[in-house]
Amino acid sequence: MRDLDKTPEVEDSSALNQQLLTWYDHNARAMPWRVSPADRARGQRPDPYRVWLSEVMLQQTTVAAVTEYFQRFTQRWPSVQDLAAAEDAQVMAEWAGLGYYARARNLLKCARVVAQDLDGCFPDSYEALLKLPGIGPYTAAAIASIAFDRAETVLDGNVERVMARLHDIHDPLPAVKPVLKEQAGLLTPPLRPGDYAQAVMDLGATICTPKNPACGICPWRSPCLARVAGTAPELPKKTPKQPKPTRLGVAYLARSADGAWLLERRPDKGLLGGMLGWPGSEWNAAPAPRPPFAAEWQDLGGEVRHTFTHFHLILQVKLAELPTGHNLLPGQELLSRHDFRPQDLPTVMRKVFDLWAGSDFNPGKDR
DNA sequence: GAGACGTGGCG
DNA sequence: TCGCCAAGTCT
């Protein structure tokens, strides 16, 4: 790696973040949870609840995916007290489709701590925020800087990429992360740290993109060492990942004569924790059949394919009529035709339903 | 430190 | 079709 102590841009940190903030003042993307630089300059402050909610939703998730979820959440639960008072199942259903469901469970935990123990006020320091459920180093720094104007350093995938390129650092992630964090810290300004944090992330999201970075219009095109070296598109380096294995499984759709569905609430820990799903086999190389009750299970034909973070899944789907008077086992729920909403399911489970809905087994298919 | 943990878009 | 990638956290 280069001798970072002698990089000129570090000594020019003031000029650098001035260039970035000027760019941000003219190019900040509008988002429902964001106070524009102009409004911020007039003294308007962001609502910590909305900053927190948006940052949790944005963990490993794109702005485009988050926007409508954020609108629905804030419309339904305008304050942290409202959210803290919500039922678990309602929050999980509203989160369905957004992924990483541990975030939703921790969101509720955190809301209840803030509402019940902290008088409804989010802590305003990095250290105190870090103690809350679902808030890690990134989110604590983001809330502290954006909502409370603390000079904390955010380090997400965008900032890592920007720092690696600005300093032309070729050492692979994640090992080099502490170095990138240090470089990001040297650039964090005492004034407007919140706008600065959002500016670096906007830069990474719109200009300094993973592929085809738009170096020609970058506010940091002049000091950027990777642009000079021509290495920007290949940075940051990452240690190669293991290929994903493929697992198999069977999902069982049981429908009563009046159109109610048999579902299961999954355990809080593990994959799709706390979410509704169809009864099914285990997911592995050779799953044993595990129907929720004995019946003539009919194969729907076709299959559901879905890829999780660490494996591919191919699901076979079987169907049977739920006998009248079926006794619900622990964890099972019978949802009436009226109460069942496929959009409340995690995506893989919704795909299973969609396979049935488009099949000849659906009496209302063409209506 | 490394693996678990979702999903959708893009090239 | 497929691998990469996204405003990470928890264990």
TrEMBL record:
It holds the Pfam family HhH-GPD. Residues 57-206 form the HhH-GPD domain. It comes from the Bacteria. Gene3D superfamilies: Helix-hairpin-Helix base-excision DNA repair enzymes (C-terminal), Hypothetical protein, domain 2, Nucleoside Triphosphate Pyrophosphohydrolase. Keywords: 4Fe-4S, DNA damage, DNA repair, Glycosidase, Hydrolase, Iron, Iron-sulfur, Metal-binding. The keyword Iron applies. Its cofactor is [4Fe-4S] cluster. Binds 1 [4Fe-4S] cluster. Its EC number is 3.2.2.31. It catalyses: Hydrolyzes free adenine bases from 7,8-dihydro-8-oxoguanine:adenine mismatched double-stranded DNA, leaving an apurinic site. The keyword 4Fe-4S applies. InterPro entries: A/G_AdeGlyc_MutY, DNA_glycosylase, Endonuclease-III-like_CS2, Endonuclease3_FeS-loop_motif, Endouclease-III_FeS-bd_BS, HhH-GPD_domain, HhH_base_excis_C, HhH_motif. Coiled coil: none annotated. PANTHER family: ADENINE DNA GLYCOSYLASE. Adenine glycosylase active on G-A mispairs. MutY also corrects error-prone DNA synthesis past GO lesions which are due to the oxidatively damaged form of guanine: 7,8-dihydro-8-oxoguanine (8-oxo-dGTP). Belongs to the Nth/MutY family. This is Adenine DNA glycosylase.
